[in-house]
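Example record used in the benchmark description.
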Amino acid sequence: MGSGPERLLKRAQFLAVRRGEKRRGRLFLMEVLDRGDDGPPRVGYTVTTKVGNAAVRNRVRRRLKEAVRTHAAADMAPGNDYVIVGRIEALAAPFGQLKAELSRRMRGQ
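Model output (structure tokens):
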């Protein structure tokens, strides 16, 4: 399976991406950092406690991960790190809209 993006796992990696470009969307905020290499893209997910309790946050995170896995991963550029900060609106939005918006933001639109 391992053709998709790698995961950002360490806190330091997440913090590094904060210095990158911010692409704001209604359903999420996307932070993008060009690492300056041509390694595989890496992605991490964050959902703050503002969004809701742990169960709600996990649902938002799972929905984002599934949208990236099934659709938007193809739009990630090599050498880039992406942190996707979920919003509560990501739960109610139609899945197709979520996928399309993730793809669009990954392409920098």
